[in-house]
Protein backbone atom coordinates (compact mmCIF):
# COMPACT_ATOMS: atom_id res chain seq x y z
CA UNK A 1 0.00 0.00 0.00
CA UNK A 2 2.81 2.37 0.94
CA UNK A 3 4.68 1.51 -2.25
CA UNK A 4 1.58 2.32 -4.35
CA UNK A 5 1.20 5.73 -2.63
CA UNK A 6 4.86 6.51 -3.20
CA UNK A 7 4.45 5.57 -6.87
CA UNK A 8 1.40 7.86 -7.23
CA UNK A 9 3.23 10.69 -5.52
CA UNK A 10 6.16 10.24 -7.88
CA UNK A 11 3.85 10.41 -10.91
CA UNK A 12 2.19 13.57 -9.56
CA UNK A 13 5.55 15.25 -9.01
CA UNK A 14 6.68 14.20 -12.45
CA UNK A 15 3.53 15.63 -14.06
CA UNK A 16 3.83 18.87 -12.05
CA UNK A 17 7.44 19.19 -13.13
CA UNK A 18 6.34 18.77 -16.74
CA UNK A 19 3.68 21.46 -16.39
CA UNK A 20 6.14 23.87 -14.80
CA UNK A 21 8.58 23.29 -17.62
CA UNK A 22 6.09 24.26 -20.36
CA UNK A 23 6.31 28.08 -20.01
CA UNK A 24 10.12 27.96 -20.02
CA UNK A 25 10.09 25.79 -23.12
CA UNK A 26 7.65 28.12 -24.81
CA UNK A 27 9.80 31.12 -23.98
CA UNK A 28 12.89 29.36 -25.25
CA UNK A 29 11.15 28.55 -28.52
CA UNK A 30 9.92 32.13 -28.86
CA UNK A 31 13.43 33.44 -28.23
CA UNK A 32 14.62 31.50 -31.28
CA UNK A 33 11.71 32.56 -33.51
CA UNK A 34 12.67 34.80 -36.41
CA UNK A 35 11.27 38.34 -36.28
CA UNK A 36 10.32 39.35 -39.82
CA UNK A 37 10.67 43.10 -40.32
CA UNK A 38 9.11 44.48 -43.49
CA UNK A 39 10.11 47.75 -45.14
CA UNK A 40 7.95 49.53 -47.69
CA UNK A 41 10.17 51.90 -49.62
CA UNK A 42 10.63 53.29 -53.12
CA UNK A 43 14.39 52.63 -52.89
CA UNK A 44 15.98 49.66 -54.71
CA UNK A 45 15.96 46.45 -52.60
CA UNK A 46 19.76 46.33 -52.40
CA UNK A 47 19.87 49.83 -50.95
CA UNK A 48 17.05 49.03 -48.50
CA UNK A 49 18.99 46.04 -47.17
CA UNK A 50 22.18 48.07 -46.93
CA UNK A 51 20.43 50.88 -45.04
CA UNK A 52 18.40 48.69 -42.68
CA UNK A 53 20.66 45.70 -41.97
CA UNK A 54 22.54 47.45 -39.12
CA UNK A 55 19.16 48.21 -37.49
CA UNK A 56 18.07 44.56 -37.83
CA UNK A 57 21.42 43.30 -36.52
CA UNK A 58 21.24 45.60 -33.49
CA UNK A 59 17.74 44.46 -32.55
CA UNK A 60 18.77 40.84 -33.03
CA UNK A 61 21.57 41.32 -30.51
CA UNK A 62 19.33 43.10 -28.01
CA UNK A 63 16.42 40.66 -28.33
CA UNK A 64 18.68 37.61 -28.71
CA UNK A 65 16.73 36.30 -31.66
CA UNK A 66 17.12 36.65 -35.43
CA UNK A 67 15.62 39.66 -37.21
CA UNK A 68 15.05 39.11 -40.92
CA UNK A 69 14.42 41.95 -43.38
CA UNK A 70 11.51 41.53 -45.79
CA UNK A 71 11.14 43.95 -48.71
CA UNK A 72 7.70 43.72 -50.34
CA UNK A 73 7.58 45.71 -53.59
CA UNK A 74 4.45 47.79 -53.36
CA UNK A 75 1.53 48.33 -51.02
CA UNK A 76 -0.43 45.34 -52.33
CA UNK A 77 2.38 42.90 -51.57
CA UNK A 78 2.90 44.39 -48.12
CA UNK A 79 -0.81 44.14 -47.33
CA UNK A 80 -0.85 40.50 -48.42
CA UNK A 81 2.30 39.77 -46.40
CA UNK A 82 0.70 41.30 -43.29
CA UNK A 83 -2.52 39.36 -43.80
CA UNK A 84 -0.64 36.09 -44.36
CA UNK A 85 1.53 36.60 -41.26
CA UNK A 86 4.69 36.80 -43.38
CA UNK A 87 5.86 39.93 -41.54
CA UNK A 88 5.63 40.73 -37.84
CA UNK A 89 6.65 44.39 -37.86
CA UNK A 90 6.99 46.84 -40.72
CA UNK A 91 8.22 50.36 -41.47
CA UNK A 92 5.76 52.36 -43.56
CA UNK A 93 4.59 55.90 -44.17
CA UNK A 94 1.64 57.24 -42.19
CA UNK A 95 -0.77 57.10 -45.16
CA UNK A 96 -0.13 53.39 -45.82
CA UNK A 97 -0.36 52.65 -42.09
CA UNK A 98 -3.69 54.45 -41.86
CA UNK A 99 -5.10 52.32 -44.67
CA UNK A 100 -3.84 49.11 -43.04
CA UNK A 101 -5.23 50.11 -39.65
CA UNK A 102 -8.59 50.94 -41.20
CA UNK A 103 -8.63 47.39 -42.57
CA UNK A 104 -7.93 46.03 -39.07
CA UNK A 105 -4.48 44.73 -39.99
CA UNK A 106 -2.03 46.99 -38.14
CA UNK A 107 -1.15 48.58 -34.81
CA UNK A 108 1.25 51.46 -34.26
CA UNK A 109 4.46 50.67 -32.39
CA UNK A 110 6.97 53.53 -32.68
CA UNK A 111 6.93 56.88 -34.45
CA UNK A 112 9.95 58.14 -36.34
CA UNK A 113 11.45 61.46 -35.22
CA UNK A 114 13.01 63.21 -38.22
CA UNK A 115 16.20 65.24 -38.44
CA UNK A 116 14.28 68.37 -37.45
CA UNK A 117 13.37 66.65 -34.17
CA UNK A 118 9.69 66.34 -35.11
CA UNK A 119 7.20 63.53 -35.68
CA UNK A 120 5.64 65.54 -38.51
CA UNK A 121 7.00 67.08 -41.69
CA UNK A 122 5.79 69.29 -44.54
CA UNK A 123 5.96 68.82 -48.29
CA UNK A 124 7.39 71.49 -50.55
CA UNK A 125 6.37 72.45 -54.10
CA UNK A 126 9.34 73.41 -56.28
CA UNK A 127 9.78 74.75 -59.82
CA UNK A 128 12.58 76.05 -62.01
CA UNK A 129 13.53 79.63 -61.20
CA UNK A 130 13.04 80.59 -64.84
CA UNK A 131 9.67 78.84 -65.18
CA UNK A 132 7.55 81.95 -64.76
CA UNK A 133 5.62 80.12 -62.02
CA UNK A 134 5.48 82.07 -58.78
CA UNK A 135 2.49 80.69 -56.85
CA UNK A 136 0.26 77.60 -56.71
CA UNK A 137 -2.31 79.40 -58.88
CA UNK A 138 0.22 79.44 -61.73
CA UNK A 139 0.29 75.63 -61.73
CA UNK A 140 -3.17 75.25 -63.23
CA UNK A 141 -3.05 73.17 -66.40
CA UNK A 142 0.50 71.97 -65.72
CA UNK A 143 2.04 68.60 -64.83
CA UNK A 144 3.40 68.01 -61.32
CA UNK A 145 5.86 65.30 -60.31
CA UNK A 146 4.68 63.36 -57.25
CA UNK A 147 6.78 60.55 -55.81
CA UNK A 148 4.13 57.85 -55.27
CA UNK A 149 0.32 57.65 -55.19
CA UNK A 150 0.62 56.08 -51.73
CA UNK A 151 3.10 58.59 -50.33
CA UNK A 152 2.26 60.71 -47.29
CA UNK A 153 4.71 63.50 -48.06
CA UNK A 154 5.08 62.53 -51.70
CA UNK A 155 1.38 62.75 -52.55
CA UNK A 156 -1.25 63.01 -49.80
CA UNK A 157 -0.05 66.22 -48.10
CA UNK A 158 0.80 68.15 -51.30
CA UNK A 159 -2.45 67.01 -52.95
CA UNK A 160 -4.38 68.41 -49.97
CA UNK A 161 -2.34 71.63 -50.22
CA UNK A 162 -3.19 72.01 -53.90
CA UNK A 163 -6.87 71.33 -53.19
CA UNK A 164 -6.91 74.11 -50.58
CA UNK A 165 -5.54 76.37 -53.31
CA UNK A 166 -8.31 75.41 -55.70
CA UNK A 167 -6.34 72.88 -57.75
CA UNK A 168 -7.78 69.37 -58.02
CA UNK A 169 -5.27 66.65 -58.94
CA UNK A 170 -6.27 64.98 -62.19
CA UNK A 171 -8.38 67.96 -63.24
CA UNK A 172 -6.57 71.27 -62.71
CA UNK A 173 -3.09 69.72 -62.50
CA UNK A 174 -1.78 66.50 -64.03
CA UNK A 175 -0.03 64.12 -61.58
CA UNK A 176 3.09 62.33 -62.80
CA UNK A 177 4.41 59.62 -60.45
CA UNK A 178 8.19 59.31 -60.60
CA UNK A 179 8.69 56.60 -57.90
CA UNK A 180 12.00 58.25 -57.07
CA UNK A 181 13.10 61.44 -55.30
CA UNK A 182 15.96 62.11 -57.72
CA UNK A 183 13.67 61.52 -60.71
CA UNK A 184 11.24 64.16 -59.42
CA UNK A 185 14.01 66.74 -59.21
CA UNK A 186 15.50 65.78 -62.56
CA UNK A 187 12.15 65.97 -64.36
CA UNK A 188 11.64 69.52 -63.11
CA UNK A 189 15.20 70.54 -63.99
CA UNK A 190 14.84 69.08 -67.49
CA UNK A 191 11.47 70.69 -68.04
CA UNK A 192 9.58 67.39 -68.40
CA UNK A 193 7.15 68.67 -65.76
CA UNK A 194 6.58 72.19 -64.51
CA UNK A 195 6.72 71.41 -60.78
CA UNK A 196 7.62 68.72 -58.29
CA UNK A 197 6.85 68.00 -54.68
CA UNK A 198 8.34 65.95 -51.86
CA UNK A 199 8.97 66.00 -48.12
CA UNK A 200 10.89 69.13 -47.19
CA UNK A 201 13.42 67.16 -45.11
CA UNK A 202 14.03 64.84 -48.07
CA UNK A 203 14.40 67.83 -50.38
CA UNK A 204 17.18 69.20 -48.18
CA UNK A 205 18.88 65.80 -48.10
CA UNK A 206 18.69 65.60 -51.91
CA UNK A 207 20.35 69.03 -52.14
CA UNK A 208 23.50 67.38 -50.77
CA UNK A 209 23.53 64.99 -53.73
CA UNK A 210 22.13 67.05 -56.59
CA UNK A 211 22.61 70.62 -57.78
CA UNK A 212 19.25 72.23 -57.09
CA UNK A 213 20.38 75.83 -57.48
CA UNK A 214 18.05 76.29 -60.46
CA UNK A 215 15.01 75.40 -58.34
CA UNK A 216 12.87 77.50 -56.01
CA UNK A 217 10.13 76.67 -53.49
CA UNK A 218 6.70 78.19 -54.23
CA UNK A 219 4.58 76.46 -51.59
CA UNK A 220 4.58 74.28 -48.49
CA UNK A 221 1.92 71.84 -47.33
CA UNK A 222 0.40 71.50 -43.89
CA UNK A 223 2.16 69.09 -41.54
CA UNK A 224 1.67 65.36 -42.03
CA UNK A 225 2.75 62.47 -39.74
CA UNK A 226 6.16 60.97 -40.36
CA UNK A 227 6.88 57.30 -41.06
CA UNK A 228 6.44 54.74 -38.30
CA UNK A 229 7.03 51.16 -37.23
CA UNK A 230 3.84 49.12 -37.05
CA UNK A 231 2.94 45.55 -36.14
CA UNK A 232 0.42 43.02 -37.36
CA UNK A 233 -2.85 43.53 -35.51
CA UNK A 234 -2.87 39.90 -34.35
CA UNK A 235 0.71 39.87 -33.06
CA UNK A 236 1.20 38.63 -29.50
CA UNK A 237 1.22 41.71 -27.19
CA UNK A 238 4.25 40.43 -25.26
CA UNK A 239 6.31 40.14 -28.45
CA UNK A 240 5.17 43.59 -29.53
CA UNK A 241 6.14 45.09 -26.17
CA UNK A 242 9.64 43.54 -26.23
CA UNK A 243 10.30 44.79 -29.75
CA UNK A 244 8.98 48.27 -28.99
CA UNK A 245 11.16 48.54 -25.89
CA UNK A 246 14.24 47.54 -27.88
CA UNK A 247 13.52 50.18 -30.54
CA UNK A 248 12.72 52.97 -28.07
CA UNK A 249 15.83 52.23 -25.98
CA UNK A 250 18.25 52.60 -28.90
CA UNK A 251 19.18 56.11 -27.75
CA UNK A 252 20.21 54.72 -24.34
CA UNK A 253 23.27 52.79 -25.55
CA UNK A 254 26.33 53.71 -27.58
CA UNK A 255 25.66 50.86 -29.99
CA UNK A 256 22.06 51.99 -30.52
CA UNK A 257 23.07 55.61 -31.06
CA UNK A 258 25.67 54.52 -33.59
CA UNK A 259 23.04 52.64 -35.60
CA UNK A 260 20.66 55.61 -35.49
CA UNK A 261 23.42 57.95 -36.67
CA UNK A 262 23.78 55.79 -39.78
CA UNK A 263 20.05 56.23 -40.47
CA UNK A 264 20.20 60.02 -40.81
CA UNK A 265 20.31 59.63 -44.59
CA UNK A 266 16.77 58.25 -44.33
CA UNK A 267 15.88 61.37 -42.26
CA UNK A 268 15.56 59.20 -39.12
CA UNK A 269 16.89 60.63 -35.86
CA UNK A 270 15.25 58.27 -33.37
CA UNK A 271 11.94 56.60 -32.44
CA UNK A 272 9.33 57.51 -29.82
CA UNK A 273 6.14 55.72 -28.68
CA UNK A 274 3.38 55.82 -31.26
CA UNK A 275 0.49 58.12 -30.37
CA UNK A 276 -2.78 57.24 -32.19
CA UNK A 277 -3.93 60.86 -31.80
CA UNK A 278 -1.67 61.78 -34.71
CA UNK A 279 -3.98 59.88 -37.06
CA UNK A 280 -6.39 62.82 -36.91
CA UNK A 281 -3.96 64.69 -39.18
CA UNK A 282 -4.07 61.93 -41.79
CA UNK A 283 -7.88 61.83 -41.66
CA UNK A 284 -8.03 65.58 -42.26
CA UNK A 285 -5.59 65.40 -45.18
CA UNK A 286 -7.57 62.59 -46.77
CA UNK A 287 -10.77 64.58 -46.45
CA UNK A 288 -9.22 67.77 -47.84
CA UNK A 289 -7.55 65.96 -50.74
CA UNK A 290 -10.76 64.16 -51.75
CA UNK A 291 -9.25 60.71 -51.16
CA UNK A 292 -11.45 59.73 -48.19
Report the sheet-strand fraction: 15-25%
Which architecture of the largest domain does the CATH hierarchy give at level 2?
A: 3-Layer(aba) Sandwich
Give the topology string: H per helix, E per strand.
HEHEHEHEEEEHEHEHEEEHHEH
Structural class: alpha/beta
Chain-averaged pLDDT: 90
C-alpha termini separation: 78 Å
Unreliable stretches: 1-8, 10-29
CA gyration radius, whole angstroms: 24 Å
Total domain units = 2
- What is the level 1 CATH name of the largest domain? Alpha Beta
What count of helical segments does DSSP give?
10
Could you characterize the architecture of this molecule?
The protein is α/β, with parallel strands linked by helices and 292 residues long. It folds into two domains: 31-118 and 225-277, D-Maltodextrin-Binding Protein, domain 2 (3-Layer(aba) Sandwich), CATH 3.40.190.10; 123-222, D-Maltodextrin-Binding Protein, domain 2. It has ten helices and 13 strands. The strands form three sheets. It has a six-stranded mixed sheet with strand order 2-1-3-12-4-13. A five-stranded mixed sheet has the order 8-7-9-6-10. The longest helix is centred in the N-terminal third of the chain and has 31 residues, at 2-32. The N and C termini lie far apart (78 Å).
Describe this protein with a few key phrases.
2 domains, 292 residues, disordered N terminus, 45% helix, 5-stranded mixed β-sheet, D-Maltodextrin-Binding Protein, domain 2, alpha/beta, 6-stranded mixed β-sheet, 13 strands
Amino acid sequence: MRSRCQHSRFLCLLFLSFLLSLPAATLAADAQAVIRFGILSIAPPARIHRNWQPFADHLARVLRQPVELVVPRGFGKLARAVEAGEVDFFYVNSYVFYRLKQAGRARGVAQMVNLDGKVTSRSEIFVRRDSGIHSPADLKGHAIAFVSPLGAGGYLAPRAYLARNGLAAGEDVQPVFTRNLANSIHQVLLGDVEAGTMCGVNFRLMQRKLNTGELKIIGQSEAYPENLIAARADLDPARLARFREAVLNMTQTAAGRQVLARMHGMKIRRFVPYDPAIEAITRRLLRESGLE
